[in-house]
Specification:
This protein is of the alpha+beta class. The protein has 4 helices and 9 strands; from the N terminus they run H-H-H-H-E-E-E-E-E-E-E-E-E. The protein is elongated, with a radius of gyration of 25 Å.
């Protein structure tokens, strides 16, 4: 016996259309208008932090350094056995960085993070965290401050790190 495909009645189609339209209007009013245009008729956008998204503009537009944009800079340092070190860069808000690092002599725990300029509370924001022999990627800084890596060597031997970076930054170095 063949089955007839299920079809919706005219009444069901009209109900489905207006339901979808209603959900779209609610989404527009509650989420899209506050996030994109800073229009928040209900106040929910402000309480969810969406109105802040509408006004985000680079405070200090970054003008990339053409020399840094085209070639990687190589940095090499050692993470002593059982110890940790930080390697930091000063970067403006919305600056871009491309990086790649490789460890020789063992794997390392790392935390790629940033600390806002002038903050005294100890706040930091982690971007990536793992234990591995290598990592590569890129990111755009969400705020002006120092950004970089904390490397922890849990092994019994010193580990050498070769870090290649390119982007718009000023080297702070090892801390």
């Amino acid at each position: 016996m063949s089955q007839v495909p299920h079809s919706l009645s005219r009444k069901q189609l009209i109900i489905a259309f207006f339901s979808a339209f209603g959900i779209a209007v609610i989404t527009l009013i509650l989420f899209i208008l506050p996030a994109e245009y800073n229009v928040d008729p209900t106040g929910i956008g402000k309480s969810l932090g969406l109105t802040a998204l509408a006004g985000e503009q680079p405070a200090n537009p970054v003008s990339p350094d053409p020399a840094r944009e085209s070639a990687f800079e190589l940095v090499e340092f050692t993470v002593p056995a059982g110890k940790g070190v930080e390697y930091k860069l000063a970067m403006q808000q919305y600056a871009k960085l491309t990086y790649e690092w490789v460890s020789y002599g063992g794997e390392l725990y790392f935390d790629l993070h940033g600390e806002p300029e002038g903050d005294t509370s100890g706040y930091f924001e982690s971007y990536a965290e793992a234990t591995t022999y290598e990592m590569k990627g890129s990111f755009t800084t969400p705020f002006t401050g120092s950004h970089g890596w904390y490397f922890k060597n849990n092994g019994a031997n010193n580990v050498t790190v070769k870090l290649m970076i390119k982007g718009d930054y000023t080297i702070i170095g090892l801390k």
